[in-house]
Amino acid sequence: MKLGLGTAALGRPQYINVRKENCDNSDLNHFRKHSFTVLEDAYQSGIRYFDTAPGYGLAEELLIEWLQTKNDASIKIATKWGYTYTANFDINATVHEIKEHSLFKLNEQWNFSKKLLPYLKVYQIHSATLETGVLENKEVLTKLAYLKKEHHLKIGLTTTGTSQLKVIKKALNVLVDGKQVFDIFQVTYNILDQSLKEISDELLSQNKSIIIKEALANGRLLKNNNFPHYSRMYVTLENLSKKYKVGADAICLKYCEQTIANSIILSGASNSEQLKENLKTNTFSLSNNEIELLNSFKTSTDSYWTERKKLPWN
Question: What whole-number distance in Å separates Cα of residue 80 and Cα of residue 113?
């Protein structure tokens, strides 16, 4: 299985997630050392795809520092532009990030992100939407096409919200000098939001790469009394966990792998123990009947994203 590591939880102490335990990340030096260790443990476990962004606080900086300890051409770094981290590691911050899809922001963030070269292989618009007009901004698209050619990058975008498929379809038709700009699509997909299936075959037929994010639905797929409406799903995941002797996280990751062909699934692990559990997804395969059972827990995109918006930063 191609498992990658997303660094959002490693780069900033607070993230949109469902935590089972209290987590004190107030000591920034300790937080940095901890995150550095997780990066190294991921590498030693065989992970070679690392996803980051300026919006993830210290994440790019940590990766740049960590890459100085490596000499391995198989490492691939993906980063993004479009979000600025604003919480300044303040646990009480009310605004954690600001989106801006302007040419100015692209140039500003590229000037730092390019330090990730030559390991940087993927450059993405962070959370592209129809509302920001970024897919119609000729200056931005021309610059991305230039970076693609100049640095042999894959250009991509990440999607979020109920309009994921509309954004992807529009992006497939974006051309600069007669050539498609976008090669790679990082999409929210999991047992609850299965909408990616509607377009995954088309993406693969056009030789596009698919990266799956939020495979655990920001923690909602792990048993939680705050979500009683998922009780039947939790029982099913618990039964599968017992059968395969893995955690529910590994079941959820395996579901993504087996239902979206040739994808890379991002682990959002915030510590090495979580990462170790995630990697157990390589030890088994789900049957067709089990896949169909998990398919049955699909929710509407509207209800999925309405619920997600209510999740706290913690």
Answer: 8
